[in-house]
Amino acid sequence: MFRIIKRLSPVAVFAAIAFLLVQVTGMLYLPYVTVDIVNKGLMTGDILYIRSKGFLMIGLSVGSLLGALLNTLIFSKISYQLGGELRGDIYRKAMSFSKHEFDKFGASSLMTRNTNDVTQVQNLVEMAMKFLILSPVMLFGGIAMTYLLSPKLALIFLGTVPFLAGAAFVIYRFVSPLYAKMQKLLDLLNRFFREGLTGVKVIRAFNKEQQEYQKYQSANQEYTQTSITAASIMSVFSPIITMIISLATILIVWIGGHSVAAGTMEIGAIMGAISYSIQILMGFGMLTSVILAVPRGQISAGRIHEVLDMPMSINDPQQATNLGNIKTILTFENVDFRYQGSAKKTLEGISLTVQKGQTLAIIGNTGGGKSSLVNLISRLYDVEKGHIRINDTDIRDLEQKTLHQQVSFSPQRSTLFFGTIRSNMLIGKPNATDHEIWAALEMAKATEFVRTLPKGLDSAVEKSGGNFSGGQQQRLCIARTLLKDANIYIFDDSFAALDFKTDAAVRRAMKEKLSSAITVMVAQRVSTIMDADLIAVLDHGKLAGLGTHQQLSASNPVYQEIIQSQFYKEAVV
């Protein structure tokens, strides 16, 4: 939490504290002036004295009001700026994560940390900056001012402090673990809710609405019960404070009344002490609010720093290598890879070379490591053993920015962003002209439906491309990949949603564009890869065959089995 506080602007904090002290000074001095008016004005009938002190009270009230307005404004601005910075830092750090870090946190947890956790920290900082200064001053200032009126009455308030502090400590110890549990349960709720939204078609298709609801409801009930328990414990504290201060006020009236009757105390002192008892109650109430907010804020701050302090598994080298302008060659040298925590290797002993202008097709059994292999090229993961080289340079010796400039990638799952067709295309090439965009769309055979849209390139794209069919989404993603000028083009099963005719048409159209680059294509259909210069056959993570379609179909058992499984559907032989 201290590291978050260090982000705050010292000048703004000091200015807010100055206005806060102006507010508190007026609040503490007003009851004392009231006692003077009672004792020296009302009791003696001195109108001039009452008038002069009355103007002083008005001045104190106005000053206290202005101080309260200004410090509240500044503290709110500071806390919201801090929240904005934290959200920006979390998003920026998340965007630099490799797939390994994403797998560790999960999308739902990252969203919770960037929203709910930041809000908790933001609220705590705002409360702490104001109330951690205001409440002690009001608490101990009220006791000190009471002491000036009557040392005997001040002792009553001092006697209440240990009881209040003890109650706060006990409640803090019970509530803190509950808040930690609540934030984890909130992650789980977000995950279940997100899965329900993204998988609603599957849930309905298999008539699993009730089961999914029960799964969500179970986590929801646990979160609700934990929240109720935490809130119930916290709710005990406010009545305890009120009871203790009320008992202290009764003692003030009791002791003060006897003293007034004995002539050892003025009645104004009792009135002042009762006024200060209200301020002391307010001070401890505000302090309690901060104390009770600390556990949740601390947990949230820790969760935020888990993201910000996460060591990156993939980093730029200290001395990056320049690729130069020589002929592009992509080489895998005895590459091994496994996912974090997995006992078995996903890829093992992969070695192959692809020259400029060639197309490498990757085919194999489901779960055989095809997508994992192409993910290694962009360093979404790093190899466990071996090397991936571009122009004899290990990709780990390149800056990630340089590597990503070399690669244009079309993912297995079509990914479109909310906006327009134009804005989605410009992700591939920010300075692309309309002519270049239309050319890319034509290669992907997407112009046939884009030109029918009323606004053309400025037509809206809903979240995740929900207003387009699966095939249309895939063609738009292929067009975006083709629009970028790169040396390596990767298509991770990007033609799966296309019919055979469109698939063949797209591959023919993009040949000229890709003639001077390396093309890496993952596919399930033999018909998609028959014309490839090199076909890599993966079988349970190992390279079971490497060659042309003719070579593999004549001699490779794994490839022959794939052909036979698709023979009647595609008539490839």
Describe the protein's architecture and organization.
It is built from 19 helices and 12 strands. It has about 575 residues and is α/β, with parallel strands linked by helices. It has a 6-stranded mixed β-sheet, with helices on both faces. Strands 2-1-4-5 form a 4-stranded antiparallel β-sheet, covered by helices on one side. The longest helix is centred in the middle third of the chain and has 54 residues, at about 210-260. The two termini are about 65 Å apart. About 35% of the residues are buried.
List the helices and strands and how they pair.
Elements: H1 2-5, H2 10-42, H3 47-95, H4 99-105, H5 107-149, H6 151-198, H7 200-205, H8 209-262, H9 267-308, E1 329-337, E2 347-355, E3 359-364, H10 370-377, E4 385-390, E5 393-394, H11 400-406, E6 407-410, E7 419-420, H12 421-425, H13 434-443, H14 447-450, E8 460-461, H15 470-483, E9 488-492, H16 500-509, E10 518-522, H17 526-529, E11 534-539, E12 542-547, H18 549-555, H19 557-570
Parallel strand pairs: 3-10, 3-11, 6-9, 9-10
Antiparallel strand pairs: 1-2, 1-4, 4-5, 7-8, 11-12
Helix pairs in contact: 2-3, 2-5, 2-9, 3-5, 5-6, 5-9, 6-8, 6-9, 8-9, 13-15, 18-19
Oligomeric state as shown: single chain
How many structural domains can be distinguished in the coordinates? 2
Structural class, please? alpha/beta
CATH homologous superfamily designation of the largest domain: ABC transporter type 1, transmembrane domain
